[in-house]
Design a protein that fits this description.
Shape: elongated
Radius of gyration: 21 Å
Distance between the termini: 58 Å
Strand content: 35-45%
Number of strands: 6
Structural class: alpha/beta
Order of helices and strands: HEHEEEHEE
Largest sheet: 5 strands, mixed, barrel
Number of helices: 3
Helix content: 25-40%
Length: 126
């Protein structure tokens, strides 16, 4: 009898409760002040503006990657200027980007002695 109860309990949990949790976790208001995809990831800024922000500020930049500098560093350009970005190998996740591809990067301002760069957390083509 205990096995039967355990079996039905597991069945109920797997097939009824788990899908409902997934459905409710995805819902929500996506308008102003709601659960947008970039909430908590930063604000959309230009390269010029990013260069004047404090260390560890989360930012979103849109532009192009124009040059590889080696050691996971690249030159990023938008209409306001250029900045060095640092993209770890795991962040690429198989994405191929050419110099003519516009991208959106989510990252953090990294103020160092040798200058300011953006530590990229996510990148996507736009």
């Amino acid at each position: 009898m205990k096995r039967r109860t355990l079996f039905f309990g597991a069945y109920f949990g797997l097939f009824f409760l788990l899908p409902m949790i997934g459905i409710y976790a995805q819902e929500g208001f996506t308008g102003p002040g709601g659960n947008s995809s970039t909430k908590g990831q930063g604000q959309l800024v230009t390269v010029l503006a990013a260069k004047n922000l404090p260390d560890d500020t989360r930012v979103i930049l849109q532009g192009t990657i124009v040059q590889s500098l080696g050691d996971e560093k690249y030159t990023f350009r938008d209409s306001s200027g250029e900045i060095v970005i640092d993209i770890d190998r795991k962040v690429w996740r198989g994405l191929s980007v050419g110099i003519n591809d516009r991208v959106e990067i989510y990252g953090e301002v990294d103020v160092e002695r040798r200058g300011i760069e953006i530590d990229v957390k996510t990148i996507r083509k736009i």
